[in-house]
Amino acid sequence: MPDFLLYALLAGLGVTLVAGPLGALVVWRRMAYFGDTLAHSALLGVTFGLLLNINLNLAVALGCLLLALILVALQHNRFLATDTLLGILSHSTLALGLVMVSLFTNSRIDLLGYLFGDILSASAGDVVTIWVISVLVSVLLFLLWRPLLAITVHEDLARVEGVPVTAVRTALMLLMALVIAIAMKVVGVLLITALLIIPAATSRRLTHTPETMALGASLLGALSVLGGLAASFYWDSPAGPSIVLCATGLFVLSLLRRAEV
């Protein structure tokens, strides 16, 4: 296996390790639009990284974390409906990132790579960064799993039982921001939410408990990465979109299986 393909595979598997359980929570809590908003802000982080001449992965992570905190704060001051607010922030941050990249950066960058992923250019450093963050987020999700399930089932009841709802919800947003920051390399800004949602939605149709759904989502995500990279290698198709299409194919198969049953 060529080195670039091995690095791409390891990077993709590192993302799917944590995207599975996090995607399950996103599906249960109907937070897809939150994911889109955070993902679109990633390009703004790239711009600031280029302008300030700092590591782009760090800049993207800090940008996503900052927007996650802003979203949490705005949720407490509901001067607009949540979906309206997210729609405004999602598209405005993406547009601002695109404009700033074109106007204020001297270096030529591959915008398509940031928008749709550039997993085949993953380096050994990228792989290490992705796996370190994935393992860290996985450990934190494991520690917060019960409180996260509690607020997903019923926030008011969880609060009565002593669960710090605001802190747990904020932690979930911050963890999502970290995963989006590392997933941008794999599927790009425009497709990150698909990698979170589609495997989780597929697993939901095939499993019966929260834990098996989370595990199944990770396994289905890994299969999607394998299939997408194979398609990209043999047919020279773009890797990020190919991964998402493989995930979509698995979802369609899950629909057919349920129909047969």
TrEMBL record:
GO terms for cellular component: ATP-binding cassette (ABC) transporter complex. It is a multi-pass membrane protein. The keyword Lipid biosynthesis does not apply. It comes from the Bacteria. Its main location: membrane. It is found in: Cell inner membrane; Cell membrane. Gene3D superfamilies: ABC transporter involved in vitamin B12 uptake, BtuC. Involved in the high-affinity zinc uptake transport system. Belongs to the ABC-3 integral membrane protein family. This is High-affinity zinc uptake system membrane protein ZnuB.
